[in-house]
Amino acid sequence: MATLLQHFPLNTGSIHPTPLPAPIPPETAGPHRPGWLHLLLRGPVQIEPHQPLLQPALVWLPAPTAHTLRPLSDGGATLLSTPVRFGDPALNPLIGALPPLVVVPVRDMPRPMAAAWALLVGEYEAAAGAHGEVLARLAEVLVLQTLRQAVEQARGQVGLLGALSDERLRRVLDAVHARPGEPWTLQTLAAETGWSRTVLATRFRAVVGVPPGDYLTDWRLRVARMRLAQGWAVKDVAEAVGYTSPAALTRVCTQRLGCPPTHWWAARP
C-alpha cells in the first residue's frame, strides 16, 4: 500500500464545520477530483442517498460522489468536512477497490484511530495556533488509518484489498507497483513470493480476480496514462513502463483502452 501511496499522494483540504443541510455535488474538472471526509461529532445526520448516521462517526466517500447531508433532529448536528484528493480517481486502483461509502463509528475505532480522533476534536475545540494545518494533517492520518483498517478487514476477500492483506501477494503487488518497467515474467513474480509459478498464478487469480499478466498490463497502462498526462514523451513513457518501443505501447494501449497513448498526451493539464 505504501508503494501505491507514492503514486497517488493523499492530501486533504481545509477542514471546516459544515452548515446543514449541505448538498455536495461531485467536482468533475481536472484529474485530481476529490472525494470527501465527514466527521460527525454530534447529532444524527442523513447522508443521501446513503444511510443515516445516528452516532459520532468518520465518513469517507473515496470517489467524487454527489451527496446531501441533512440533520435528523431539531437539535442539529456538528459536522466537520474536507475534500480528500487521492490521485486521479480513474487511475487509482484503491479508489475502485473501496466501497463508495466507508463509515467507522467512533465506538468501533481501534485505539490508534480513536487517539487520532480525540486529538482532532481537541484541536478543533481549542482553535490554537496553526489550527487549520494541524486539523488537515490529523484528517490525513485518520484517512490513512481508515484505509489500513479496510485492508485488514478484507482478509480472505476477492479483490485488491484482499490481496494487499495477504503477505505474499502483497510482495508481488509491491514489486509491480514500484517497478513497472522491469521485464516481469510469471517466474520472476513467483520468486517474490517463494511460490511456484503455478501456485502464484492460481492464488493471484483467485484473490485479485485477474491473472498476474493482466494486472501487470493494467498497472503499466495506468502509470503510462499518468506520465503522458504530465507531458512525458511517448518514447520515454514506453521505456518507463516496460515496453520495448513506442509502437509496442501504442498497440497495447489501443487494444486495451481503445485509443493511442497520444490521447492522454494531448489531454495533459
Short description:
This protein has 12 helices and 10 strands. It has helices spanning 2-7, 93-97, 111-126, 131-153, 160-164, 167-178, 186-191, 197-208, 212-229, 234-240, 246-257, 262-266, and strands spanning 10-12, 16-17, 22-24, 35-42, 45-48, 52-53, 57-61, 67-71, 78-86, 102-105.
What does this structure look like?
With 269 residues, this protein is α+β, with helices and mostly antiparallel strands. It is built from twelve helices and ten strands. The chain has helices spanning 2-7, 93-97, 111-126, 131-153, 160-164, 167-178, 186-191, 197-208, 212-229, 234-240, 246-257, 262-266, and strands at residues 10-12, 16-17, 22-24, 35-42, 45-48, 52-53, 57-61, 67-71, 78-86, 102-105. Strands 1, 2, 4, 7, 9 and 10 form a six-stranded antiparallel β-sheet that branches. Strands 3-8-5-6 form a four-stranded antiparallel β-sheet, with no helix packed on it. Strand 5 (45-48) and strand 6 (52-53) form a beta hairpin. Helix 3 packs antiparallel against helix 4. The two termini are 27 Å apart. The mean pLDDT is 92.
Strand percent estimate: 15-25%
Count of helical stretches: 12
The overall strand count is 10
Overall outline: globular
Q: What gyration radius follows from the Cα positions, in whole Å?
A: 21 Å
Termini separation comes to 27 Å
Structural class: alpha+beta
| Biggest sheet features | 6 strands, antiparallel
Please write the string of helix (H) and strand (E) elements.
HEEEEEEEEEHEHHHHHHHHHH
